[in-house]
Amino acid sequence: MPSRRGAQNDARCVIRDEDQARFSTVVLPHLDDCYRLARWLTGNRADAEDVVQEACLRAFRSIGGFAGINARAWLLTIVRHAAYTWLGKNRSASLLVVDDLEAVERQQASGASAFGQEPQTPEAALIANTDARRLEAAIAELPVPFRETLVLRDVQGLDYREIAEVTKVPIGTVMSRLARARRRLMQRIAEGEEKAGS
Amino acid sequence: MTTSTTDPRLLVHAYVDGELDPANALELERQLANDPALAAERERIEALRRTIAERLPREPAPAGLARRIEAAVGARPAPARIASHPSWRALAASVVVAAFLGSGATWLALPPAPADADMVVANHVRALMAPAPVDVESTDRHTVKPWFSGRIPEAPRVVDLSNDGFALVGGRIDVIGRTPVPTLVYRVRQHLISVSALPAGRAVAMPEEQIAGYNVVSWTDNGVTYWAVSNVAAADLNAFVKAFRAAAPDGNT
Question: Residue B3 domain-assigned?
Fold first, then answer.
C-alpha cells in the first residue's frame, strides 16, 4: 500500500499525464495559427517562437479550465496576451500610436476622401497586382490593434465574433478597426504604386 | 451581424465578410446598386482580401517549435512512474472488480451481463403473469418461426424438442434494453422455459445462475447468445439447454 503522500503524487502524475494528452489534441493542432499571429505581432521569427512557447506553457497550465468550445480562439487569446506582454517590454512605443492613426482617419474622413470620389475603380486592379513583399510591409506598418484585427480576419479567417473574443472588444469595434486597417492598406498600396511609377 | 451604425462605408466590410444580417445585407445591396463609389469600395475590399489570401506567404511554425514545447510541457517522465505504481484509475478499477467479485458472479469479466440476466428474468416473470406467456401459440415450429420473421430482422432458431420431453408452446417478443428480442417458450411438465436469443456481443455469456429464485443459463452458439430462464430445477434446465444445443441445425427450418 503506497503512503498517502505517494498516492497523491501518483494522482498528480496521472492528471499531468491527462493534461499532456489534452494539450496534444487541443493546442498542438493550432500551433501554425499561433505562430503566425505571434509573427505578425512581434514582427520577427525568433521573438514569435518565444511568444508562442510562453503562450503554450500558459495554455498548458490552464488547460484544465478550458471548456472545449473553441480551442483556436482560446489559444489565440493566450498568444495575443503573451505577445502584448512581449511588446510592452520590447516595443512599448508600438502600443501607443493608436490615437495618432485615429486622428489621421478622422481628418481624412472630414476632408475629401482619398477614395470614393472617383466613379472608376482602378485601385481594385492595382490592389490585385500588389506583390507579397509590399503587402507584407504595409501590414507590418499597421498599428497593433488594426494589424491584429486584419490578420485575425483576412489571414487567419476568424469571424467577427471570434475576433471580438480574442481582442476583447465589441463586435462593432472589430468592424471599424477592420475597415480602417483595410483602408490604410489600400492607401499604402496606392502610395507605393505612385512612388514606383514616378 | 446586427449593428447600430448605418455608415455604409463601414457596413460594406461586414457585407463582404458575410457578417451582415439579411435585412442589413439587403439594404446594403440596394445602396451598392445606387452608389458607384460604394460599389468601387466593395471591389477594392474584395481585391484586397483575395490578394492577401493568395499572395501573402503563410509561414508554418518552425519544425523544432512543437518539439521544444512538448519537451517543456512534458519534462517529467511521467509514464515510468505510473508503470511502477498503481495509478488512481487502476486502483478505482480494482475496487469495482473487487465489489463485483464480492457479488458472487466470479466468472464475469464485464458488469453488463447481470443487467441482461435481470431483464431476461423480468420478462419471464411478466410472461407468467400475463393471460398468455406467448404472443403466438403453436406447437409447430413452422408456424412460430414465420411469425417472428414478420416482426424482427432475424427470426430465431426454433427447434422441436418434443422427443426430449420439452414441448414448444410458442413465441413472444421481449425487450432487453431497447432491443426487441425473440423469445421461445417450452413446457416441461407444468413448468415453462423461456429462451431469448440476442446477437452475440450484446450480452456476455455466463454459466448457470439463480436470480430471484429462477434458474438462468446463458450460452453462445453461431453468433447468437441465448438466455434460458425457468423455475424448473437446475438439472432440468441444463438438460433442456443440452437438448436445445444438440438439436440438428438442418432440422430447424
Answer: no
Residue B161 domain flag: yes
Residues B21 and B86 reside in one and the same domain? no
Looking at the DSSP assignment, which residues form a beta bridge with residue B136?
B171
pLDDT band of A62, cuts 50, 70, 90: confident
Inter-chain contact B72–A120, Cβ cutoff 8 Å? Answer: no
Write the CATH number for B224: 3.30.200.100
Domains of chain A: 4-91 (1.10.1740.10), 97-197 (1.10.10.10)
Whether B128 has a pLDDT exceeding 70, the answer reads yes
The reported pLDDT for the residue numbered B213 is: 81
Domain holding B97, by residue range, is 63-101
CB of B77 within 8 Å of a chain A CB? The answer is no
CA dihedral B148, B151, B153, B155 (to 10 degrees): 0
Nearest to A105 by CA among B205, B7, B155: B7
- Residues B43, B121: one domain? no
pTM of this prediction? Answer: 0.54
Q: Are residues B39 and B141 in the same domain?
A: no
Q: Which of A56, A60, A153 sits opposite B17 (nearest CB)?
A: A153
Instruction: Using the predicted structure, report yes or no on whether residue A52 has a pLDDT greater than 50.
Output: yes
pLDDT digits (tens, 9 = 90+) for B100-125: 444 433 333 333 445 778 888 889 98
Which among A57, A135, A178 is the nearest to B56, CB-wise?
Answer: A135
Is the same domain home to B35 and B131? no
Same structural domain, B83 and B158: no
How many independent structural domains does chain B possess?
3
How far is Cα B243 from Cα B8, in angstroms, rounded to an integer?
A: 86
Distant-in-sequence, close-in-space partners of B137: CB < 8 Å, separation ≥ 6: B169, B170
Q: Are B44 and A35 in contact (CB < 8 Å)?
A: no
Verify whether the Cβ–Cβ distance A175 to B81 is below 8 Å: no
Where do the H-state alpha helices sit in A28-170?
A: 31-42, 45-61, 71-90, 98-110, 122-128, 132-141, 144-150, 160-167
- Alpha carbon distance B46, B13 (integer Å): 9
Q: Which residues contact B73 (CB under 8 A, 6 or more apart)?
A: A20, A23, A56, A57, A60
Q: Do B19 and A178 touch (CB under 8 A)?
A: no
What ipTM was estimated for this complex? 0.80
